[in-house]
Amino acid sequence: MNLPNILTIIRLFLVPVFILTYTTGDGTAARVSAAAIFFVASVTDVLDGYIARKYNKITDFGKLADPVADKLMQLSAVGCLAINKRISMWILVLFIVKEVIMILGGINLLKEKFVVQSKWSGKIATVILFTCVMIILATDEQTLPEHYATILMCCSIVATIIAFFDYAQMYLKIKENMAKSQVNKEKK
After folding, report:
1. Of 89, 98, 126, 145, which is most buried with the most CB atoms under 10 A?
2. 34: CB partners within 8 A, 6+ apart
3. Which CATH architecture has domain 3-187?
4. What burial class does residue 188 get, using C-beta atoms within 10 Å of its C-beta: 0-12 exposed, 13-18 middle, 19+ buried?
5. pLDDT at residue 76, as a whole number
6. Average pLDDT in the 104-131 region?
7. What are the domain boundaries of the chain?
8. Which helix (H) or strand (E) holds 36?
9. For residue 114, what pLDDT is reported?
């Protein structure tokens, strides 16, 4: 177990802490505490990736657990905001549908012993989502009403859709290469 993997595990543990803090608290203190937890989780995401790449600490566990931890935290934050009516519910539904499709594609590739690594479009979408969620968490309903928060989250949706199509294109190319490889094996 190396440091990047420990940071990923910490991020996984922060998911229920974030949810409990956001849903059981009331007012500014709960909102600020939830924002702080979300921020710490995001910092661990940046650190684990940086350390893993810089010091060649990339592991198969990290390749799988890191995106799971990221998505759980992101979906928890978007879910809490939607359930609390800070953003429109359709945003949560869109994020869930996208993640289910991405997970199914990842599982399909994993069956072939292929682990997908993150792409820059996904990293940019994550930064935009982080920024939008932090702004919404840091403000109250009077300062940033639901319709404005939803409009803000549309920036994240655009980046997420671009990343989704980028990953879909990569997925199709990988599947095509796997099929060609299989045909070449059968010819031999």
Report:
1. 126
2. 18, 21, 22, 25, 80, 137
3. Up-down Bundle (1.20)
4. exposed
5. 95
6. 81
7. 3-187
8. helix 27-54
9. 67
CA dihedral sign of residues 108, 65, 55, 160: positive
Non-local (6+) Cβ contacts of 171 within 8 A are 105, 109, 116
The pLDDT assigned to 188 comes to 67
pLDDT tens for each residue of 46-93 = 999 889 889 998 888 887 888 889 889 999 999 999 999 999 999 999
Is 154 strand, coil or helix?
helix
Q: Return contacts of 57-65, CB within 8 angstroms, 24+ apart.
A: 57/2, 57/3, 57/4, 58/4, 59/2, 59/4, 59/5, 60/115, 61/5, 62/4, 62/5, 62/8, 63/115, 63/117, 64/110, 64/115, 65/5, 65/8, 65/9, 65/12
Rounded to whole angstroms, how far apart are CA atoms 33 and 21? 7
* Percentage of the chain lying above the pLDDT 70 cut: 96
